[in-house]
Amino acid sequence: MKTTSTPGVDRSHPLAVVVVGASGDLALKKIFPALFALYCQDLLPTQFHIVGFARSEMTNDAFRARVEEKLTCRYVPGQQCDELMKNFLSRCTYVSGNYDSSDSYRQLHKELEHIKTDAPENRVFYMAIPPFLFLDVAHALHDAELVSDEKEQGWSRVVIEKPFGSDRATSDELTESMRQVFSENQTYRIDHYLGKEVIQNLLVLRFANLIFDPIWNRNHIKNVRISWTENLSLQGRAGYFDEYGIIRDVMQNHLLQMVALVAMEQPVALNSTYVRDEKVKALRAVKPIPLGDVVVAQYGPGAVNGKQHFGYLQEKGTPEGSITPTYAAAALKINNRRWDGVPFLIRAGKGMSDSKTEIRIRFQSMPGNIFAQAAKGLPENELVIQVQPDAGLTMRIVNRVPGLGIRLDETKLDLRYSSAFEGAIPDAYESLILDVIQGDKSLFIRADELEAAWDIFTPVLHELEAKNVEPESYEFGSGGPEAADALAARFGAKW
Ligand SMILES: NC(=O)c1ccc[n+]([C@@H]2O[C@H](COP(=O)([O-])OP(=O)(O)OC[C@H]3O[C@@H](n4cnc5c(N)ncnc54)[C@H](OP(=O)(O)O)[C@@H]3O)[C@@H](O)[C@H]2O)c1
């Protein structure tokens, strides 16, 4: 979780944000709206400038029109918002160029003169581009003298998005090569799940509430299930997705981050080093997953809400005969005193019946239960942390049904963020970009954390590929393959 207690930045220091890949989906849908949201809340420095960079030819006006389309007035409705939008867009300019050309970035350098100041500005470089371009861009930025040395005044920070490599070796290679330009301290590896409110609340839930502390272990927890599902197809991204598959796209990063936050010990104190130290320790205790504890599958044709969908193999951009999984389930074992014997079951699937991300903590059954007869057939207590949609926390308990006899039923203690908290819930990118500007690294993936996460999945990924393991099949819009249900059942659980 975030370790900076109050939002706020050094507003006196000028800031330049360079968005490389500014014509793309991530930049337009997430980055510019998040920067605008920060601006509306007075969380950007007084002097700031945003430069969009990509190959597409665009005038400043055309660029601003594309950015404006995606801005929302969530924080400041009405006429004041129009005014703020106008001011914000006037600070956005665009440069078209080639990603590996230092000349293009020299031209971009000139744009930074829009910031009229004697003090050197701080710079954020946001790489909203496919990862194979990261290195070329980093070197060209360096050659154009845009990246300041750590000792100089005016810091430079780089933000990169997953996928960080495709296994331990390629990830290490990327880390090492990027270090030629940006030190670890200057590097912000984003996993946007860590910016989500409910995920940031996980450590608060665990370490600020006494009631959970004594029961958060193998003596009281039967299993942990973490599930990520989407009822969507690849929507034109099959070409990109096919290279990675669901394990690399979702499990190795988003799901393992959630595992780490559920499993980690309490950090020594609330600072980014201590928080990440504990996450690394938890991930290092996870045993590499054997092939027998993994199910991979691919969706076939099917329907969601009456709408027919192609199977993965019929999607535009999918290579013929691809065996890339669109679904995977795995059982993780954590080899430490707290978790020995507690299965962590994780699954991720596209083309499922619904879109939902949740963490379920299932407790043991009540020993010596005097209500055993009346409670027969009722499930054990469960804490459900719903990440999306409709962020919330639910505790499932056994309760007496009001009446004259003894009848028990399962009841929910339900906290819905939408009704419990007033005001807009910040988008994950708002929270994370603010952290980059503030220099709070607790929600970003450190290099050793990345190594530990890849060590869990690399052996099984290599084995799946070496053996050309054919994925199971499941219907688009279903609950996933039967083999995944069987895997969960083997560990005494149900998805
Ligand atoms: N979209 C999301 O919500 C999301 C979520 C999580 C992570 N990410 C990660 O964020 C990064 C950017 O994602 P995105 O969805 O915005 O990607 P994108 O739209 O595919 O690409 C961003 C921009 O990069 C340039 N580009 C794309 N393919 C290229 C190629 N083969 N060669 C050279 N330039 C190319 C294009 O700009 P020009 O043609 O104008 O140069 C494009 O507008 C990726 O690393 C992705 O994995 C994205």
Task: Give a description of the structure.
It is a single chain. The chain has a 9-stranded mixed beta sheet, sandwiched between helices. A 6-stranded parallel beta sheet has the order 3-2-1-4-5-6, sandwiched between helices. With 495 residues, the chain is of the alpha/beta class. The radius of gyration is 24 Å and the shape is globular. It has 2 domains: 15-161, NAD(P)-binding Rossmann-like Domain (Rossmann fold, 3-Layer(aba) Sandwich); 194-425 and 446-490, Dihydrodipicolinate Reductase, domain 2, CATH 3.30.360.10. It has 13 helices and 17 strands. A hairpin with a 3-residue loop joins strand 14 (382-388) and strand 15 (392-400). The longest helix has 26 residues, at 238-263. NADP nicotinamide-adenine-dinucleotide phosphate binds next to helix 1.
Keyword list:
495 residues; alpha/beta; Rossmann fold; Dihydrodipicolinate Reductase, domain 2; 2 domains; nine-stranded mixed sheet; 21% strand; globular; binds NADP nicotinamide-adenine-dinucleotide phosphate
CATH superfamily of the largest domain: Dihydrodipicolinate Reductase, domain 2
**N→C terminal distance:** 27 Å
**Ligands, ions, cofactors:** NADP nicotinamide-adenine-dinucleotide phosphate
**What is the count of structural domains?**
2
Order of helices and strands: EHEHHEHEHEHEHEHHEEEEEEEEEHHHEH
Please count the beta strands (DSSP E, at least 2 residues each): 17
Question: How large is the radius of gyration?
Answer: 24 Å
CATH class placement of the largest domain: Alpha Beta
Coarse structural class = alpha/beta
> Which fold name fills CATH's third level, the topology of the largest domain?
Dihydrodipicolinate Reductase, domain 2
Shape: globular
- Number of H- or I-type helical stretches: 13
Give the spatial strand order of the biggest sheet: 16-15-14-13-7-12-11-8-17
Biggest sheet: strands, sense, closure? Answer: 9 strands, mixed
